[in-house]
Prior knowledge:
Largest sheet: none
Number of domains: 1
Distance between the termini: 24 Å
Shape: elongated
Strand content: under 5%
Number of helices: 9
Number of strands: 0
Radius of gyration: 18 Å
Amino acid sequence: MRRDLAVTLRRRSDVINPLLFVVIVVTLFPLAVGPGPDILARIATGVIWVAALLSALLGSERLFRDDYLDGSLEQMTLLPVPLAVLALGKILVHWLLSGLPLVILAPLCALLLKLPFEAWGVLMLTLLLGTPMLSAMTAIGAALTVSLGRGGALLSLLLLPLFIPLLIFAAAAVESTLVGTSALGQVLLLAGLMVLTLTLAPLAVAAAIRVSVN
Length: 214
């Protein structure tokens, strides 16, 4: 994780670009649909989550590509450490640099889209639970396409269907808060999906890496 953090922070554009993408999308949406607070509040959660989903795809092709090109990925398969543990480390680094900043930016995005204040906490909680799943699923797709010359389009086709349940449950949690009902069910479901994803994704990434480097 220290190695990946050091390497990624040398390419600051890989960290800044996804965050700028989210801010630009959230800023432009009121200009497109109008500044009416009722309309913006209704679509705020969907806009923020769709921007988060698409930003997760930005640069995801490079998650394993550089290590594959310089031979580091092949060396990782020969280390005595289980490859799934190394894959989990890469997933956590990806989340620290892309998912966690989104959670921190959530209040600003909610303010720009006039989301009622009482829903801010649930929005941040859904992002906190959901963005690790984005990183994990992105890692699976990146590992499957790492040996392809240009796998960006294929990566998007593989991942977007997997993101749909996450988008539905996260939006439903915030919507429940806005209508005055409990969002506990959706939040617990997201938490369970996060645990399941983070448990199984490293194994899937390890298997995909072995297939790609052989």
